[in-house]
Write a structure and sequence with these properties.
Rna Polymerase Sigma Factor, Chain: A; Arc Repressor Mutant, subunit A; elongated; 72% helix; RNA_pol_sigma-70-like; 2 domains; 10 helices; 185 residues; RNA polymerase sigma factor; 0% strand; mainly alpha
Amino acid sequence: MRLVAKGDRAAFEELYRRTSPWLTVRLRRRCADEQIVAEVLQETFLAVWRAADGFAGASVDGSAMGWLWTIAARRLIDAFRRRARHAQPPPAAAVADLAPAAEEEALASTVGDGVGDALARLAPELRQVLQAMVLDGLSVRETALLLGVPEGTVKTRARRARASMRETLEALKFGDPRSREAATW
């Protein structure tokens, strides 16, 4: 990063070569639109090139990877906001025919049946927090940044999600018939 901060193009190219695949995978977990992922990746590395001298262990854990992800998460949030401003709401008929998101299908195949069932029952905002913190390994601060909510909200949602997961898993473990029709919150 010190070399990149000094304008060393070869160091920047090496940084890109080493980190762009990892960053692309993380972005794809959050967004299925390849065009947005490519734009965010480009904007992220442009920001890194311009602000590398400001790194100096700026992320929570002091790593360049954390710093890169923080920049990418901010750019992804900006891209979502831009898209939301310009998007037309889908027709009512189209909403009913939506297939599960790729991220949801990947998550279901990653975890066991009971855990997958419990995750599926969580409200979307609770599931997003767990995915960011547990599967992506983000800190509370990084999760708050990614989701565009205050850190306190992330902590509250994480606590609610864990409690709901615990309750649902216990119900499934002991065969509680209500567990099949438990409402999400």
